[in-house]
Design goal:
- With 90 residues, the chain is an alpha+beta fold.
- The protein is built from three helices and four strands, in the order E-E-H-H-H-E-E.
- Helix content is 27%, strand content 24%.
- The strands form two sheets. It has a two-stranded antiparallel ribbon with strand order 1-2. Strands 3-4 form a two-stranded antiparallel ribbon.
Length: 90
Amino acid sequence: MTAGSDRNGQPAVVPDPTATAPGRGAHVHPTRECYELAVRRKAFTRALFPKGRGAEGGLSSAPVEDYLDTRHTSTTVADGQLTRNWSKSS
């Protein structure tokens, strides 16, 4: 994840799945659980703007949520073990 702009040009956290965007980034597992925890803890703003600089009013994380909604993640339980099968939508 990195700081960028949403569709309306407002400051937002945007996905960077290839980790090639310039500037400061933050890693979050591509799961709904990790995303929701990061939002609750306001981790994106803290990670991308240390010491509170440049993040007045916080950042929208809607682009990340949209990205997660497009990913296909299946979860199975076999022999009591949780297994995730990650695949990207093309």
